[in-house]
Amino acid sequence: MIKVVHIFNTPIAGSPGNIVSALNRLTDVQARHIVSNSSAYSNRTFAVNIDWKTQQQALDVIAHADVIQVHQFFSLDETFGPTFRQRDKKIIKQYHSAPDFWAKGDAGLIERIVYQDVPQLVIAQGPERYYPFARVVPNV
Prior knowledge:
By secondary structure, this protein is of the alpha/beta class.
């Protein structure tokens, strides 16, 4: 069984819970998800498997994972701090938005996002045209 931990900066309108639930129900993947900013949407709440505030639990799940799937663009070091060093893990990036959503016109940052040296996935709901090197996947 492959253990995958999905890491999100925000609850992305419930996407983390839906993805992890589908993987656990329909595949042989054992999935968990960590959300860095679980209260990003104020009073709109979504299921959170592990809140980054419970840092030791999050680090334990990451330590036992085979694959780390990072959703959206954010710096792992800036978000999770210098304790987040997982060189022995496979890392995949998945995008749900166009790169300019974060880059705000910064061409250098757009290039860094699009040309990262890790495998990329992108949802098939519009942003796929911005990620020529990403595999297109359905939006769960």
